[in-house]
Design a protein that fits this description.
There is one protein chain. The protein is mainly alpha-helical. The chain has a single domain, classed as Cytochrome C Oxidase, Chain A (Up-down Bundle), CATH 1.20.210.10. It contains 15 helices and no strands. The protein is globular.
Length: 428
């Protein structure tokens, strides 16, 4: 195929037995990106409540769960349907099972968020039940992949722990709902424990495990991580100690758990830097460049969280959690998705004719110029959101949110263009 010619993309045609059809992860990612944008807009809408003592009201909870469940968790589910079969060298989940799980989970979220915003107890119960069932269905699907696995690796350790914490997150969410609506089963620091398990266990270990895998795939150095065992052990230990410390209301245990968590992040950083995090040649790649601010936001989380904990400034947990969720978790997905999507498109559309002539490369499917807006809008926007939340400045927060929404919208548009084609060849 000569330069300038194009090929029409047939979405979802599978050319490998080790990956799901292309549309399976794409429906999760498209829904997740939509959930992120909706959650950002909703959180901006209720920003004044966020800065007040009414931060646990239905509208705030609705916005938070749009971001965490409809946004980040949705995209992570799509990523695992794609990555886990490859990790285990096994067959993917059957399409009917993955798509029906997506439908159940999405329907549950619609009713759950609707109920939270409308203060409808009935819709909240129906939605939470369906959402929990959708997550359980997902865990069952993942369990089937584990049964059919033929290999094991570093990333599998992180994914296994993350899936365990996802199950615990659902249990904790159910207990919070029960205690909030009926007063039954309430216990000390239940919200803090829910956040520890969800943020540190489900999100934290999953993103760390995916980073180890994806840096090996797309980074230039392809080095084996040296400290992953320390990262894994310390991360799990910190979660256990923080949960026990909050349950027992022993401040010294909470302090110890936070110190261990700092150690886990240090071990993780010690692996990411040699993998190419600050390598000049690697950072010429616009998608991978997004991972520098994502790591910076992880340390903003550490600094703000340390001040909030040890200097007794609980309001700093708001910007700290935003730095963690939008900054580290969100920008990791934004960066790696710009590598995964073109790779998947190439695999499903062009791999079967590899060697039969000139074909698009990954940079032809997702040009580097498409990375500029998500990088700058995301980095500046999240910085403003953190500053606005920390200083209780709604206008600063609103400006930052507008930029973050722009970053996700441009990522969504670029993803559609990458999937839909046509893919023009660049000069070779």
């Amino acid at each position: 195929m000569s330069s300038g010619q194009t090929r029409r993309l047939r979405v979802g045609r599978a050319y490998t037995k080790r990956t799901a059809p292309l549309y399976v992860p794409l429906i999760f990612w498209a829904t997740g990106a939509t959930g992120m944008v909706a959650g950002l807009l909703d959180l901006d809408r209720v920003r004044r409540l966020l800065f007040s003592s009414a931060a646990a009201t239905g509208p705030i909870l609705g916005a938070v769960h749009l971001l965490t469940l409809a946004g980040l968790t949705m995209v992570m589910m799509g990523a695992l349907y794609q990555l886990v079969p490859v990790l285990f060298n096994g067959s993917p989940v059957r399409v009917i099972r993955s798509v029906s799980q997506w439908a159940l989970y999405t329907a549950g979220l619609v009713f759950f968020i609707w109920g939270l915003n409308g203060q409808s107890h009935g819709l909240v119960w129906i939605g939470s039940g369906a959402t929990g069932a959708g997550i359980l269905y997902f865990l069952v699907n993942m369990g089937g992949l584990y049964q059919r696995r033929s290999t094991w690796n570093i990333t599998a350790w992180f994914f296994t722990a993350a899936l365990f914490y996802l199950a615990l997150t659902v249990v904790m969410g159910g207990l919070l709902l029960l205690s909030g609506r009926t007063g039954i089963g309430s216990f000390a620091h239940e919200l803090s424990i829910h956040l520890v398990i969800a943020l540190g266990g489900w999100f934290g270990l999953l993103v760390a495990g995916a980073s180890y895998r994806l840096w090996a795939m797309f980074g230039r150095k392809h080095r084996e991580p040296r400290y992953w065992q320390a990262t894994w052990v310390l991360a799990n230990l910190s979660i256990v100690v923080l949960v026990v410390g909050n349950l027992s209301m022993i401040p010294s245990l909470v302090d110890a758990g936070w110190i261990v968590e700092l150690g886990a992040c240090g071990a993780y950083l010690a692996d990411m830097v040699p993998a190419g995090l600050i390598d000049r040649r690697t950072m010429q790649d616009g998608a991978l460049r997004l991972l520098i601010p994502s790591m910076g936001f992880l340390w903003v989380w550490q600094i703000l969280g340390s001040v909030a904990l040890w200097d007794h400034q609980p309001t700093l947990w708001r910007p700290a959690i935003l730095a963690y969720g939008l900054g580290w978790v969100g920008m990791n997905f934004m960066g790696f998705s710009q590598k995964i999507v073109p790779f998947m498109v190439w695999l499903h559309r062009y791999a079967h004719v590899h060697g039969r002539g000139k074909m698009p490369r990954l940079k032809d499917i997702w040009p580097s110029k498409w990375t500029l807006v998500p990088f700058w809008a995301g980095t500046v926007g999240i910085s403003l959101v953190i500053a606005g939340a920390g200083l209780s400045q709604p206008m600063l927060f609103q400006g930052g949110m507008a930029l973050v929404v722009l970053a996700w919208l441009m990522l969504f548009v670029a993803g559609i263009r990458a999937v839909a084609g046509p893919h023009h060849l660049s000069d070779l």
